[in-house]
Amino acid sequence: MVAGLLAAGATSGRGAVAVAAGREREGGPLAGPRPAASLLGQEIRRLPTSREVVALTFNAAWDESGLDAVLAELRRRKVPATFFPTGRYAEAHPAAVRAMAEAGHGLGNHSYSHPYFDDLSTRERAREVRAADAAIRTASGVEPLPFFRFPYSSTTQDAVADVNDLGYAAIEFTNDTNGYLGPAGGMTVDAVVRRAVGSLGPGAVLQMHVGSSADDGVVLDAQALPRIIDAAVEEGYGIVDLRAFLTAS
Description:
Elements: E1 34-35, E2 43-44, E3 53-60, H1 67-77, E4 82-85, H2 87-92, H3 94-102, E5 106-107, H4 122-140, E6 147-148, H5 157-165, E7 169-171, E8 175-176, H6 189-198, E9 204-210, H7 220-234, E10 238-239, E11 246-247
Parallel strand pairs: 2-7, 3-4, 3-9, 3-10, 4-5, 6-7, 8-9
Antiparallel strand pairs: 1-11
């Protein structure tokens, strides 16, 4: 049943457009596919659709813990996800970012160094976005998606406008599973699943994480993912690919 919910582009092989040699990326919006107009002018916490679909997204800023399990489950179930690595993560773990892309999943942008964007100037924000873009494309060998996720989900109207001016939609989330807190933070697999299921609704965007913030190798989101997908399907939800919300440049 899940296989029939797979959005185009999430099968095996490269899931994003190969990097164009010599592409000009200085000044003005970044080149390449553009987000749909309905994603601009605001932070997106629910996709603009009335369909019963949910998007699975994973931030990556720590280590590679749990990534193999997540990719294996997504492959087994034939469902797409979008990964949002930081630039520093891409530089430190290029094989991990490449594995995300080679599994057919889209790569968003989570900034270079994960600062609070409300503390930055427009120029500093642009540097963070562009540096992350360069690091992600170098690590993955593919064109990153024009989707940006703010560090700490800390957004302002000005910061969203700056990101939009660079050609990115601000893709936040309907709910975070809080799996990244780990057992030390009072979370369990059951709690992660409950938060995910409680967030279901048309266009819901779930935020999860790969990597261990506590350096203990425990990634509750990876452990909970099979149950989250099962629950979504049982509730009649399809798994949507964020790339369905792109338009040609």
